Amino acid sequence: MGYSIGLIIVMMVLFYFMLIRPENKKKKAAEELRNSLKIGDDVTTIGGILGTVCAVKENSVVIETGADRVRIEMTKWAIGPKGSQTSPE
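The structure assignment produced for this chain is given below.
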């Protein structure tokens, strides 16, 4: 009986260190990136739109896309990685 409880605890600890902790680090890094956005940064949205940040507001970002200079306002959570991503990671 004691052996099975110990095994369950070991499995929970492994689960935490292999799945939960890395995911929390990834979320924290993404949040820091979104909070550090500034005008002129090249970004890719989670929908795949490439653009340059032209305004940063409290909860949203305005990006300018392409040579036609279309401006799109979107929430900060919709911003993916900095830089132009042309292939999936």
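Interim note for the steering committee: The beta strands are 42-45, 50-56, 60-65, 70-75, 79-82. Residues 2-35 form the longest helix (34 residues).
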